[in-house]
Design goal:
Radius of gyration: 24 Å
Distance between the termini: 59 Å
Bound molecules: pyridoxal-5'-phosphate
Helix content: 25-40%
Largest sheet: 9 strands, mixed
CATH architecture of the largest domain: Alpha-Beta Barrel
Number of domains: 2
CATH class of the largest domain: Alpha Beta
CATH superfamily of the largest domain: Alanine racemase
Structural class: alpha/beta
């Protein structure tokens, strides 16, 4: 088979035409763990981390790569992230709780979000649990008050919207970005005055920007650094802030289908670090620590989902629908953003005969279509369908729609498969339901 970037590194095919991952046939995994099943290929994950690390290290020696937990928050993945020297980008008390359960080093956790609660902020500040990426004036006020209450000095970064809008293949620079996230740069004076006023409680470490997701270009990253560093210069000259860190967000795109052509991590690292060095040199600024926070480009193609085919419907003179045992609740991306995926029939890899089918989910929504019009070997009920590129924003965005339990997630490596998130059962997903006495 043609091993494109869409597939995990260890994908293979046995002589009998069975697809394998991590040295195990997917049919075997389906039998043992049932379907739908999320599978993470540990080798791909580690290679992606290694790739980010070595490409940045080659060009810049003061850096920290954060794994964006929102892409897939799992304890085992947090453990590998820590073991491979990554930090963590989190967005909720829940992600923080999981990180703490895994003994993730506090000083490498950065807390994001456009509406962090007072409780979350208080907890973080009281326990020195993370650095805070401050998103808005309301939060700046909460941080200042909480720092005062807990007699702490809090490290923060300020999230700015540099006026760069990305949509996968193209981007525009706008004066003011219409986004719920971050401060508009126009408010910089106001922000810096507040921080200056509370300098005993707040330590400004730097600025952050995240310009979008599934980005296929380099220029928006270097433009964003350009704009951010102008603010470093301004903050230094007008207010005397010497800022140590710059966080360029995540967002690098991946191949979901073979026509996707993402940027190499190596090229991203070169573009970003050379822009940083040139611009700091030009503005006479000290080189800040470079922080980035990729999610999808680390975990995305490390993950696949396997399903079992069930009912098959031929519309007279129309489409052939193959329904599988999962769908929009385990992968909401197709129905939410019309995301495109590719698939293979895992137990029919040496069958040359093909037909065009549409892979439909089992959920009660007409729009629950996982892949429209894909050419695959003739499918029968019981065949195993493997969908690729499902490592990011699948489990983490999954739901119990139709009161269906979430699938299990396993990790495979060198012929060994291990469960990292157990399959839910009916009891799990109904255990919080209560019937008021008067209704019994
Ligand atoms: C602030 C921030 N950082 C990092 C990420 C990770 O992005 P990606 O998974 O596209 O790399 C996101 C995703 O939405 C984000 O909002």
């Amino acid at each position: 088979m043609n091993k494109s970037e869409v597939y995990p590194d260890t994908i293979g095919v046995t002589k009998d035409g069975d697809l394998t991952l991590g040295g195990i046939t997917l049919s075997e995994l389906a039998k043992k763990y049932e379907t739908p099943l999320y599978i993470i290929d540990e080798k791909t994950f580690r290679r992606k981390v290694q790739n980010y690390t070595s490409c940045i290290k080659e060009n810049y020696n003061n850096y920290l790569i954060l794994y964006a937990a929102k892409a897939f928050a799992a304890a085992a993945i947090f453990r590998i992230a820590d073991n491979t020297a990554l930090g963590l980008d989190i967005v909720s008390g829940g992600e923080l709780y999981l990180a703490e359960k895994c003994n993730f080093p506090k000083n490498k956790i950065y807390f994001h979000g456009n509406n962090k609660s007072k409780e979350e902020i208080d907890y973080v500040i009281k326990n020195d649990a993370a650095k805070i990426i401050c998103d808005n004036f309301h939060e700046l006020d909460l941080i200042q008050k909480s720092a005062s209450d807990h007699k702490k000095k809090v490290d923060i970064l300020i999230r700015l919207t540099p006026g760069i809008e990305c949509h996968t293949h193209d981007y525009i620079k706008t004066g003011h970005l219409d986004s719920k996230f971050g401060f508009d740069i126009e408010y910089l004076d106001e922000i810096l005055k507040i921080i200056k006023q509370h300098e005993d409680k707040i330590s400004l470490k730097g600025f952050h920007s995240h310009i979008g997701s599934q980005i296929f270009e380099l220029k928006p990253y270097s433009d964003s650094i350009d704009i951010l560093l102008d603010q470093y210069k301004y903050a230094k000259e007008k207010y005397g802030f010497i800022l140590d860190e710059i966080n360029i967000g995540g967002g690098l795109g991946i191949s979901y289908i073979s026509s996707d052509d993402p940027v190499d991590i190596e090229d991203l690292a070169k573009a970003v670090t050379s822009k940083l060095k040139d611009k700091c040199n030009k503005l006479n600024l000290k080189l800040p620590k470079l922080i980035c926070e990729p999610g999808r480009s680390i975990i995305g193609t490390s993950g696949i989902t396997i399903y079992t085919a069930g009912s098959i419907k031929q519309v007279p003179n129309g489409r052939k629908y193959v329904s599988v045992d999962g769908g929009m609740a385990d992968n909401p991306r197709p129905i939410t953003y019309q995301a495109k995926y590719t698939a293979l029939v895992a137990n029919k890899m040496n069958q040359p005969e093909k037909e065009t089918v549409t892979i439909a989910g089992r959920y009660c929504e007409t729009g629950d279509i996982l892949i429209q019009d894909i050419s695959l070997p003739r499918i029968s009920p019981g065949d195993i369908i493997a969908m690729f590129g499902t490592g990011a924003y699948n489990y983490s965005m999954s739901s119990n729609y139709n009161t269906i339990p979430r699938p299990a997630c396993i990790i495979v490596n060198e012929g060994v498969a291990e469960v990292i998130i157990e399959r839910e059962n009916y009891k799990d997903i109904t255990s919080k339901h209560l019937i008021p006495k008067r209704l019994s």
